[in-house]
Protein 1
Amino acid sequence: MSTTADLLAQFNVIARTEYNRGYKEFEPEFKELLFEYESGPVETLNFPFFEFLNGMEKFTGSRNHQTFPDGHKFQVTNEEYDMAVDIKRKHLDRAALNRNIKGLNPYKQRIAELPKLVKDHPIELAFDMLESGTANTFGTTFDGQNLLDTTHNYGTTAGTQSNIVTNGTGTTVAQLIADLTTAMTRMNGFTYNQGGTTLGKKRKLNKTMNKLLVVCPDELWGKFDQARTQSKLATGEDNPVKGRFSLVSRPRADANDWDLVNLSDSTFRPFLFQKEKEVELDTPTLQDENARERKVFTWGAYGRYAVAYGAWWTIVRVQNT
């Protein structure tokens, strides 16, 4: 075995250790945006959004039997995702000749960045999908409507509930506070018919709203930060939204529209994160084609998963003209 092969074997152990440690320890922010589940080894899964059961009823002598509700056959298709770091063979050859594996530390640090990028990626996808939520660029929700639409329902056909406030009052701090109250009221009013029929009892879709997140363009971050921290309005009244929400800003094409997101429910979340194959690190050998033909060694991260739209009622967009 050549000295390069020895060094490569040692470095592969180091790289895999760094990757696995980072993957285990790193927890990305805003992971509550995603409802995570395993698809199994399939390309497409019919994800079942079930109608709600009728609930408990007074016993009057015979049990009220309910069949398991039919699921809305909402397809989520896994995609392949990949990234890689290359090290030129000549650098490994020289490190081997010098018997200096520490000379590869800069590359070790770059490989250690991979698991952070891997675990952030589904969340970055979710933010991109949220920005484009008024169109079907990334698909639709289980009811067949765009994520942000005026015709939502908890069913398989279009309804009448809108998670878009089309008449935002503006982007001053006072106007943002007023529109936040409007968005919270809209979100609090989303309902479904228990049992799935129009005659069923109405129940709230957002049962709690104790973990709210505002997603705004970078241009509005400072004003929203004031809205969540100042105690009084200009009128002298108490600020009704102080401390009510967390805040994140994104670079967006529209500098005036923003979203209110409810992360209170551990099951019904804004996005689905379907995983088929965990993203794992693959390591090179001297026999790899890249090593022979291109004279580089490649450390790659590869997996199969998908992010799809989930619970539409957990998001309200405020649009400003």
Protein 2
Amino acid sequence: MLGAIIGDIVGSFYEFAGIKTKDFPFFSNKLSFTDDTVMTIAVAYALLDGGTSDNFIDAMKKFGKIYPNSGYGGHFALWLSKADNREPYNSWGNGSAMRVSPCAWFAESLEEAERLAEISAAVTHNHPEGIKGACATAAAIYLARTCAGKDEIKKYVEEKYNYDLNRTCDEIRPNYCFKISCQETVPEAIIAFLDSTDFEDAIRNAVSLGGDSDTLAAITGSIAEAAYGIPNEIIKTAIDYLDDPIMTVIQTWLETGKPIGAFNFHK
């Protein structure tokens, strides 16, 4: 879960820059959390509140109101702005995958991770591709956090979700550009993890593809966290970007005894 937030923060400055290099400042005063972080926290809040469709809707609208200017996509922003609108809008956008990581940490089985991911996605992103992207991401995270190797994760995602993961970042990078769909973001984000050597390298891979960098890095970071853990220095730096409403949800999550990531987290 924190891996997604860190990926969002690191990628935030490069979202529209289209950089094609792994050589960039990992943290700077130009970075901030965006809608990826806000909605990740909303999903965590909803799971703690019961994990029903209504819980997800309520939490997303609650945190959308707290953070109204966080860079939401147009359709999602419109959905957030109408308090009485609780119907999904058939989105296939990558927002369902960027926010899904708490489902994989909350779940006690792979099947539950995928089920919770589907519920969390379908309240807005009820297009098959929107649901697929969230479920594939949650599956990869759950498998990584339960010690599955990269080959096993790759095989499972390819066979169940029919994503082409037989590429490398070097092959993707030259022609890749800003994409907002799950089908053109989630496979690339998973490959950025598969191609990595550690948590930081995974985030650098994702940002270097030159696409929707904060969302790519949020998805990649959520998987990399589960596989590698996160160095303490990165955690300490990242949490300084977070404010009280977000930290309150994180602390509440910790108090439930549910795992939050492959590290010891302290404010």
